[in-house]
Amino acid sequence: MATNYKEELVGVLGYPVAENPTCVMQNAAFEALGLQWRYLTIEVKPDALPEAVRGLRALGFQGFNCTIPHKVAVMALLDEVSPDAALIGAVNTVRREGDRFIGENTDGKGFLRGVREAGFEPRGKSIVVLGAGGAARAITVELALAGAANLIVVNRNIARGQALVDHLNARTSSQARFMAWDKTYHVDETVDGVVNATSIGLYPDLDSTPDVDLSAARSDVLVCDVIPNPPDTRLMQTARSRGFKTLNGLSMLVYQGTLGFEMWTGQPAPEAVMKSALEKAFAA
Questions:
Q1: Where are the beta strands (DSSP E) in 123-216?
Q2: Assigned CATH for 8-105+251-283
Q3: According to the model, what pLDDT value does residue 2 have?
Q4: pTM summary value
Q5: Is a pLDDT exceeding 70 seen at residue 142?
Q6: Is 71 a residue of the active site?
């Protein structure tokens, strides 16, 4: 009886990337469905990204994820970018179609599903987003498309933050404005939601937290963090201790991951298995 030992490969490219837990949920999903697939965690320095993508093509990878700092740079290395990802200006998921690599973005959609499940509907809301990188671009575009009335982009790099605001105002119906993050950002009573879309607080910098003041925020504000590792960041702890509703990065990680799984395999993702695998990993 013939046996097939060949595994279909996918993975994530990032720098740093050791703290990325995506392999836990994806490999659990493959095992649950009896698929001979493997998800690899691959560290790639920025200047080596073109060579890495060529290598994935040569090795027959069925797709891959991109995380910090590759979500924008990878776009120039692909055969096609979906309209959604082009609007966002960043790619976090690449799927293979024949010999072609096609860029998608599942980050914002995963985030949006998470906030809605938390009882927060973006339409008509005023939302502060900390950061202007790939995750922030995906989140702000999806929030704008979902009808958010006002988006405040807070970022240290003025050029990057203003570019994102200009992009949102030119391509969506939301009103976006930029605030330079050169001192503590004070969240006022007009804000409905706060999203940390930066890497501040990501493992191993567990004691770091975004420089924001929530003392004037309304009691019904939703405070979100996209960081999945650790899921209970200092920002989450602080916001929860002050009585705010919180949403950690696990929901976005799981829901963007289920979309990627389905793009790669063509099969429905076992969401419960993926979420449980992450929860067990972090509990350990």
A1: 126-130, 150-155, 175-180, 185-186, 193-196, 212-213
A2: 3.40.50.10860
A3: 61
A4: 0.88
A5: yes
A6: yes
> Taking 70 as the threshold, does the pLDDT of residue 1 lie above it?
no
Structure tokens that stand for 19 in this block: 């703290």
How far is residue 60 from each of residues 22, 48, 104, 253, 268, measured CA to CA in Å?
Answer: 20, 19, 18, 25, 22
Domain spans, the chain:
8-105+251-283, 108-248
Do the domains spanning 8-105+251-283 and 108-248 agree at the CATH topology level? yes
Tokens 């093509």, residue located: 57
Give the containing element (helix H, strand E) for 97.
Answer: strand 93-97
Catalytic residue among 6, 45, 71, 125: 71
Q: Percent of the chain scored above 90 by pLDDT?
A: 88
CATH superfamily label, 108-248:
NAD(P)-binding Rossmann-like Domain (3.40.50.720)
- Dist CA 103 CA 252 (whole Å): 19
In sequence order, what DSSP letters do the residues of 195-253 get, joined into one string?
EE-S-TT-TT-TT----EE-TTS-TT-EEEE---SSSS-HHHHHHHHTT-EEE-THHHH
Cα distances (Å, whole numbers) of residue 234 to 68, 116, 121, 130, 260:
21, 23, 25, 15, 29
Instruction: Using the predicted structure, report yes or no on whether residue 284 has a pLDDT greater than 90.
Output: no
